[in-house]
Amino acid sequence: MSKILQKPNLSFWKIWNINFGFFGVQIAYALQNANNSRIFQTLGADPHNLSYFWILPPLMGILVQPIVGVMSDRTWTRWGRRIPYLFVGALVSVLVMCLLPNAGSFNLSVGTAMVFGLIALMLLDTAINMAMQPFKMMVGDMVNEKQKKLAFSVQSFICNAGNFAGFLFPILFTYLGIKNVAAKGVVPDSVIYSFYVGAAILILCVVYTILNVKEMPPEEYAKFHGLDEKKTHEKVNIVALLKRAPKVFWTVGLVQFFCWSAFVYMWTYTAPGIAENVWGSSDTTSAAYQNAANWVGVLFAVQSVGSIIWAAVLPFFKSNKSAYFVSLLLGAIGFVTTIFIKDQYVLFASYLLIGCAWAAILALPFTILTNALDGDNLGAYLGLFNGTICLPQIVAALLGGVVFKYIVHSSSIAMLVVAGVLLLIGACSVFVIKENKK
């Protein structure tokens, strides 16, 4: 093993440039999260089956992100090691973002439109996952330990700013006069135009990062991480990596299971739940339902604001575990209170609390994990750790229809209470984590 050199401090703007492309990627992710159920319910999906449409996003994540991590750990081109995957993922995302919301616009039968939408969703999820992971890897590659907290804070801010913008696009375009209702089975223009604009912003932001970031070559990376340069080209056995993963990988993964299950139900059932509970409508062709669906974007934007504010509070906690527990507890309260609220503006309080949990989920698991890892196979481990995000989403999506029908008796808003219970269990699971540094 060669002598480890200290990576130099980076200016704030270099750290900003590394992360800036995430703004566009997160807009795409926000548009998908806020409008997925809306699109498929408009196409004709039964509310009892809505959760099944959320299986594809995490399924593609659990397949794609470890591959991107392992391959980019062993890649070097004239354009870098992570950036080629970022560019390809962003380019495919842009193309598919122009197709997904048009699934109902080609005079297809309901079944064919649904299949078209599912294929487009699968491609979009694959591409977003390919574009998303390189940002976390570049921070790990290029930023020293002293500045890593700042870098992840900048990334969190940019991530939530992208969420905020993406969530608000449909209601903004409605305000500007673009139609928010359409014929049965057709997605409104306000949603379609939101995806078009989001696609344009995505490619511009990613190109900005590509033009302004120069990655380390393998020999330089090896020196700064104390690795044998030859190891950067060796093949990786994923099973072996999992066997020697630090214990914290698995204990944080347990917490992740309950957290991400909760948020799957939020993304799936907020639109129909708020439409029924506050607007009193479940008819997707009605103005009331589409107005409620627009308001969901506002609520998710409020959640992003709460996340930004709470992210500034998190560093004041004495330990990561206490910050994690309190954040998830506040989020659980936010979810449970939604069933009692009939006023659209009072819902802001609930989603601000949910934002506290989201801030912790975005930052603390990666902070705890990377403290236990060295630079060897960093991308691979981050890709594998994504399984603790994707697997619970798949399980929750598979069980969602059963829970919806037999436990909450077809009440969409009650599914948010289920999300709150899951988040509370996640908060209690924080105490099994034992932090360690490598």
Give a structural overview.
This protein has 438 residues and is mainly α. The two termini are 16 Å apart. It is 72% helix and 0% strand.
Task: Report a brief summary of the structure.
The chain is mainly α. It has 15 helices and no strands. It is globular.
Task: Summarize this structure as a short list of keywords or feature phrases.
single chain, 438 residues, mainly alpha, 72% helix
Instruction: Estimate the strand proportion.
Output: under 5%
Number of helices: 15
Poorly predicted segments = none
Overall pLDDT metric: 87
User: Distance between the terminal alpha carbons, to the nearest Å?
Assistant: 16 Å
Overall radius of gyration: 21 Å
Shape: globular
The description of the largest β-sheet is: none
Series of secondary-structure elements, N-terminal to C-terminal: HHHHHHHHHHHHHHH
Helix-and-strand structural type? mainly alpha
The tally of beta strands, per DSSP, is 0
Helix content: over 70%
Topology:
Blueprint: H1 12-43, H2 56-73, H3 83-97, H4 110-142, H5 145-175, H6 189-212, H7 218-225, H8 238-243, H9 247-279, H10 287-313, H11 320-337, H12 347-370, H13 378-385, H14 387-407, H15 412-429
Helix pairs in contact: 1-4, 1-5, 1-6, 1-9, 2-4, 2-13, 2-14, 3-4, 3-6, 4-5, 4-13, 5-6, 5-10, 5-12, 9-10, 9-12, 9-14, 9-15, 10-12, 11-12, 11-15
